[in-house]
Each structure stands twice: as C-alpha cells, then as structure tokens.
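User: Some background: our group keeps a shared notebook of sequences we're curious about, and every so often someone picks one and asks for a predicted structure to add to the entry. Today it's my turn. The entry only has the sequence so far, pasted here. Could you supply the structure so I can complete it?
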Amino acid sequence: MHLKDKVALVTGAAQGIGNACAQALLEKGCKVGLVDLNAEVGKESKNNLDKQFGTQRTIFIPCDVSNEEQLKDAFKKIFEHFGRLDIVVNNAGVNNEKNWEVTVQINLISVIRGTYIGIDYMKTENGGNGGVIVNIASLAGLMPAPFQPVYCASKHGVIGFTRSLAIISKTGKYGIRINAICPAFVNTPILKTIEKEENMGQYLAYKEELKNMIESYGLLPPPLIAEGLIKILEDDSLNGEVMKITTKQGIHFHEFSPQPLQSNKQ
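Assistant: Of course. Here's the predicted structure to add to the notebook entry:
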C-alpha cells in the first residue's frame, strides 16, 4: 500500500504506541483519526501533531472503545470527515487483573468490534477501497504470562481472531489485509499499572517477579512498534501474519506450524 493521502483510524492514539503510530502515519503522508478515552491528553496530542503536520491532517474523537455506539460513531465521524477509510489500527488496551472483565472488553471484544466495523467501511463489495487492519496484541499472546493471566488470554484471543479472519478476508475477496503486532514490554504508561492493587489485584504480590521479567526483556521504544506497523502497511504480501518485536531480535515474524483445521474424511 502506498500510504500518501490514505486515511487511518488509530485507537488509544493519545499516548504510547498509538501516538507513535499516528506520528509515523502522518510522516508517511496519511491523514489520521485519533481515537482515545482521555480527552485532555488526546487534544494535547492533536495539538502537538498539528504543529508538525498542519491542522487538516488529523481529527480527534473522544471515545470509550468498549462502548459499541461510541466506537461506531467514531468510525462514522472519521469517515465523514475525510471521505474514506483505508487503515484501522486497533491499539487501545488495558491491564486490569482485578476487574478482569474490563480487560476482556477492551483488549479483545473492542478489537473484534473495531475490526468488523472497519471491514464494513473498507470492504470492496460494500463500495470501499479495501485496506489494512492491524491489531496490536502482545508477546503475551504467544506464551504464558503467569502474573497477568487475563491480559494474556485477551492477547491470545486477538491473535487467534486476527489470523482466522485474515483467511476469511482473503477467501471472501474483501480487499482487506489483517495482521497483528506482538511487542514485548513497551515503555508506555500501562507499565505503571503493575504497581497498583486496583489493577493487579491478587497478583500485586508478584510485583517484583514481574519487574524482574521486564528488566530481563528490556523496554521497547514506542516508535519501534510504529516502524513495524509501517512495514506491515507497505508490504502487500502480508496477511494473517504475526509480527514480533523484541529488544534482542527487533522486528521479525512468528513462524506457526502449518496445521489448518480440516476433515479427516477422504
């Protein structure tokens, strides 16, 4: 995909990975719809980006992605504002093991919903231009995360959903590629939640073990995840892929064993 003049919607765009992705997309000539629950930080983020890229290249929509109507409205406003939609980055996420339903709702259900809404707008048979959907998962979606089991489950779900729907998209000729990015620990505000009982609940007792794990893996800068995003967007051969990003290996792809579900009947 040539990115100049394409329109992207990024959830969780006010800070961290989402903000870095918005910056990278704008640098490539895209227009970006910034979606985030935090209105104050979101407006500040837009103002900072406007200073670099002009006021016409972005729009900020305050939105709770776990609210179906708010999410649908955000897509509608961005589509109507820019006149098209080409890229969806489902990035918004939380870490909450105490109120674990919130984690499932935001990290998984909202990603599923955002993907389906994006397909409705971009699907060629619906009159769309096709496009790319990138779901931000985590390395925790590929291995156990013993002190964050619900977070881990939500990210496993994102990967399974993404890979499965990518096959459907290709078979159904949607004109849409769907991929996932799985970073290790990223230097974002979400890391502060491991210090809070209101987020970690019973797993706060393992705070030091988790800190040791983070130190072992090292911290990734958000712009590196944005670099991975651009690689996926620009490579038209990528569909159903899971990009991993770690401090030791940088950007690379996970290799799955080819074991598709199939009937044993001859």
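Suggested note for the entry: The beta strands are 7-11, 31-36, 58-62, 87-90, 131-136, 176-183, 242-246, 250-253. Helices lie at 16-27, 39-53, 68-82, 100-122, 149-171, 197-200, 207-217, 222-234.
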